[in-house]
Amino acid sequence: MTSVLEAHGLGKRYGRRWALRECSIDIPAGHVVGLVGPNGAGKTTLLKLASGQLEPTTGGITVLGGRPAGGRAQLAKVGFVAQDTPVYAGLSVADHLRLGARLNLRWDAAMARERIARLGLAPAQRAGKLSGGQRAQLALTLGLAKRPELLILDEPVASLDPLARREFMQGLMEATVEHEFSVVLSSHLVSDLERVCDFLIVIVDSRVQVAGETDKLLATHYRLTGPRRDPDRLPADQHVISASHTERQSTYVIRTDAPIHDPAWTVTGLSLEDLVLAYMDRRTVENRRVALEVRR
What we know:
It comes from Nonomuraea phyllanthi. By secondary structure, this protein is α/β, with parallel strands linked by helices.
């Protein structure tokens, strides 16, 4: 299957600080990708590298088979909605559509006008007078009317109220079904990703922790609960993602492709939020092992 984004050993450094490092991922076309991680993890850096706004320090990245921002034709394939869905406060809604038409090779003026009318946005109204949800919808309209093959959105709904967030995500999903493009969506709101995304990337401490189709990830991750047991006593094919212990009980989140036969464990599946939180907590696993050794 064609890849919409490929990265190999990708890294970006600012002085001595790595914003992203050793990133190797392959995202097939046709997915809605959820990119999640804590603040400062490297999500925005990855998206800016993918859109050509930054150059890598190490490694390489291709988007839709080409170098990001590598010429006008390549730029036309990728739409980008930045964090906080910025628009020009002094320009009207109609001005934004005229600007979009002048800047984009494949601009769909009819779709832009129809969407603005359906949203109830007055063409003469200045963007600075719009609500946060309306500004987000205007920014999304500009991205969609570009008719991209890949639409990148960096935390587009973080500042919106629940109703505006739901309307934004619903509009995005309707557009992906109608126009069949790929999406990479960064968000802290796992509940939103759970509804719309079928591919997940988790970044923690500037590194990709896990990436893959959500149904396959959920089918290979489990929570094990049972009598206290050290991680080195688990089978080799059970990879520990996170762990917690009481005096008598251990709880692990593991990844495995093999059946779990040990009757000592209570085995349960994970929600997408459970999975994301386990990987975001992964850096504490070694500390917990050290704590166990000290207590022994």
